[in-house]
Specification:
By secondary structure, this protein is an alpha/beta fold. It is built from 16 helices and twelve strands. 43% of the residues lie in helices and 13% in strands.
Length: 420
C-alpha cells in the first residue's frame, strides 16, 4: 500500500502535464469580463489558442507562425497552435460535428473565415456572440463600411473581426500598354476588346475560381447601375438584370482569346497567358498589386496593377470564435493582436509572405509611430501596386452570398455553352 500512494501522486502529475501539453483539451477555467480587457488578458495567459485556417500557402503559414506566434508568446504568454485545413469548410464541419455530438468545449478556438462558411455557422447559431466591437483595436475598424459590416451580404453583427482585405484589380505590362489606353469601366473594356480581338480573356467562373465570378459580378453591378441593390438577395432583381449580363458577356465572347471557346481555369493559367504575351491583361486581389507576382517570376518585371473607376469588388476576410471554443480569452487576444497597426503594416509587405491589404482604416490610427509604419509599408509597394486612393475610390462590396451560385451556374448555361 505504501507504494501505491506515491504511484498515484506520480500518475496525477503526469496526467496534469499531458493536459497542459494538449492545450485545448484542458482549457483554462479562468473567467473574464468581455468589457474589461485586462481581465481578458489575465485569463488568456498560459492558454493555447488553436487556430484553424487555410494551409495551402507556405508563405502565409510562415507569416502566421513568425509574427502572431512570436507576439502571442512574448507579449501575453499564449501559445499558438496553428491547424492547417485544405478548405475552410473543414473547420466549419468540425464545429458542426461537435455540436451534433454535444461536445462542449470543442477543439477550435479561432477560424479564418468569410462568405458562405461564416453564413453557415451564423445560421446554425454556433458562433461566440457580441465580441468583435469589444476588442480595443476594433476602434481602428471602419464598421460603417458595408464591405466590412456585411460579409458577402451577410451582416457581421459582431460575430467576426476583420483580418485583411483583398480587392479585384487588373494587371497590365507598362512596356506594352500606355496607362492612357487602359479601359476604366466595363463599357470601355468592351470597346477595347472589340478593337483588340484575341487580346483579352477572363477566368471561368465557378467553385475554386472566385476571381472569375468576381469579374462577372462587377459587370453585373455596372450594367444594373449600382452595387448596393445586390447586397441583399432579391430574386426579382436577379431575373431583371441577369439577361442583360449574359448579353454583355456574349457580346464580348467572339473577340476574346480563342474566340471565347475556352477560358483560363484559374489565376495561374491567366498569369501564364499574360506572361507569354498571348493576352494583355491578368488579374490580382493583392494589395501589393503585381509586386508579389513579379518577385515570383510569374509576370514581367514591368507589370503594374490598375482598377476601373467603379465596381472593383473587394472584401474583408475575418476571424471568428466558435461558441464552444475552449480558450475564448486567448482567441480574443489573438483577434485583437491581428488588428495591431504594427502587424497590419507587416502583412502587406511581399517579403513577409502574406501580401493582403489592411483590415483597419489607416485614417483611424492616431498613434504617430504606428501611422508612420503603416504609411512606410504602403510606400514600399512601389509602382507595381495600385494607388490606395484609386483602390478606395473604386471599391464595391461583394454581393449577397446567394448570388454566387446563380452567377456561376448561369454563366455556364448562358455564356460557356452559348453559340452567340
Amino acid at each position: 500500500m505504501k507504494h501505491i500512494v506515491p504511484f498515484l501522486l506520480l500518475l496525477t502529475i503526469l496526467l496534469s502535464a499531458c493536459s497542459a501539453i494538449a492545450g485545448t483539451a484542458n482549457p483554462s477555467s479562468t473567467s473574464f469580463d468581455i468589457n474589461d480587457w485586462d481581465s481578458v488578458v489575465a485569463a488568456a495567459k498560459g492558454q493555447t489558442v488553436t487556430w484553424y485556417l487555410w494551409g495551402g500557402s507556405e508563405s502565409i503559414n510562415s507569416f502566421v507562425d513568425a509574427f502572431y506566434g512570436k507576439a502571442l508568446k512574448d507579449r501575453y504568454g499564449i501559445t499558438l497552435h496553428r491547424v492547417p485545413v485544405a478548405d475552410t469548410v473543414d473547420a466549419v464541419n468540425q464545429v458542426l460535428s461537435e455540436k451534433q455530438a454535444g461536445k462542449d468545449p470543442g477543439a477550435v478556438d479561432l477560424i479564418w473565415i468569410n462568405g458562405a462558411n461564416f453564413l453557415s455557422l451564423k445560421q446554425a447559431n454556433l458562433l461566440y456572440p457580441d465580441w468583435a466591437n469589444k476588442l480595443p483595436n476594433s476602434l481602428l475598424v471602419n464598421w460603417d463600411n458595408p464591405a466590412i459590416n456585411r460579409d458577402f451580404g451577410t451582416p457581421v453583427d459582431n460575430l467576426e473581426s476583420p483580418w485583411s482585405s483583398a480587392q479585384f484589380q487588373f494587371i497590365y505590362d507598362s512596356a506594352r500598354l500606355n496607362p492612357a489606353e487602359l479601359p476604366r469601366s466595363y463599357a470601355q473594356l468592351k470597346e477595347w476588346v472589340i478593337e483588340h480581338p484575341g487580346r483579352f480573356t477572363y477566368i471561368a467562373p465557378g467553385p475554386g475560381a472566385f476571381q472569375g465570378t468576381r469579374f462577372v459580378k462587377g459587370a453585373l453591378f455596372e450594367i444594373s447601375g449600382g452595387a448596393d441593390q445586390w447586397s441583399t438577395f432579391d430574386q426579382a432583381t436577379w431575373d431583371q438584370w441577369s439577361p442583360e449580363l449574359w448579353k454583355y458577356l456574349n457580346e464580348l465572347k467572339p473577340y476574346l482569346w480563342r474566340n471565347g471557346e475556352t477560358y483560363p481555369k484559374d489565376e495561374n493559367e491567366l498569369h501564364s497567358l499574360f506572361a507569354n504575351q498571348e493576352v494583355d491583361f491578368s488579374i490580382t486581389q493583392a494589395a501589393v498589386g503585381a509586386g508579389a507576382l513579379i518577385e515570383q517570376g510569374l509576370v514581367p518585371a514591368t507589370s503594374k496593377a490598375f482598377v476601373f473607376d467603379q465596381y472593383m469588388i473587394g472584401d474583408f476576410n475575418y476571424v471568428a470564435i466558435p461558441a464552444n471554443a475552449p480558450n475564448k480569452a486567448a482567441a480574443l487576444v489573438l483577434a485583437n493582436l491581428i488588428l495591431d497597426p504594427e502587424l497590419q503594416a507587416a502583412q502587406i509587405l511581399p517579403e513577409n509572405g502574406f501580401g493582403l491589404g489592411y483590415g483597419i482604416d489607416i485614417n483611424r490610427v492616431t498613434d504617430p509611430a504606428a501611422l508612420v509604419k503603416l504609411q512606410d509599408a504602403a510606400k514600399k509597394l512601389g509602382d507595381a501596386a495600385t494607388s490606395p486612393v484609386d483602390l478606395a475610390k473604386s471599391l464595391a462590396g461583394d454581393s449577397d452570398a446567394q448570388y454566387q451560385n446563380l452567377v456561376e451556374t448561369g454563366w455556364r448555361q448562358n455564356v460557356l455553352v452559348s453559340s452567340k
